[in-house]
């Protein structure tokens, strides 16, 4: 048997919002056939220039914490490197070394040990909820707790419930915001990506950090597109997240998310490869042919048939209710733009038939419209 001419993600459009390793993720997805649009959702504040982090570091040296919570390896290493650049590394290590240290997972644990700061405890699950339970069980009323956070702004923290519950239990919390970020500049590629989500121009959008999620939602609000973006993410544009922490801001808003079992970039690419065809393609049997409808193309009996935007929109409208008649007026509404001439429908149908390769796959119903003459419909 000959190899198929298509890859697992052929015909699917994926938006990549990563600021770090975006090219790597895009390359993995393109290798699997996806059409990728990338625009970094955030810009990081350079650590040597982060006056807030420097001030908090000074404060912890002057008044060491009772408990330290390390949440990410890269964040802890960045903090120690910044302290070294400010000439404070020895004093900071000594101050933190007097505290009880709790680590959220193996990466944070590795960074702690590399800095000479052995952890008291760490959950196997990398769950902040388990860390919280551990601290609450031991009693933290009156304790001064430094929590290293990765990816935050002055108005947004990645673990708001975690910090609030520590405070509710009587602790004095000192957030250490390492790698603070700003949203990407206005009127650039990121704005176009957000608008593309609102207009359902993608089949999936990938997120590798909670700050990227927050930035998309904030920019959508600024652009007056919040409702459209949320509607798209709840329906036709699938949110693919690297892990549960990244997904949390979307879950709170009722947006369905999916994530790989391992919180790694390669695992996310494989997860998108495995899941997106199941979520976003539809298979139906029409006029003796097997059609698989994807984001920008249709596979006809396993062969890729490229489609113009108008032909693809017509295909989706007809496939929404396979076998049912769709009027010219309804098809006109489905076409890109806001045309009023039903001749555009006839042109789109003609191009669709030509692209499919068998005109019998789109039947004309005189004076009523068009339909797909379905043999057997099956969702996939």
Automatic annotation (TrEMBL):
Assigned keywords, A-Z: DNA-binding
SMART domains in alphabetical order: Trans_reg_C (SM00862)
Keyword set includes DNA-binding: yes
Pfam families named among the record's database cross-references: HEM4, Trans_reg_C
Matches recorded under Gene3D superfamilies: 3.40.50.10090, Winged helix-like DNA-binding domain superfamily/Winged helix DNA-binding domain (1.10.10.10)
Single GO molecular function: uroporphyrinogen-III synthase activity
PANTHER family (UniProt xref): BLR5956 PROTEIN
Designated name of the protein: Uroporphyrinogen-III synthase
Native source species: Mycolicibacterium duvalii
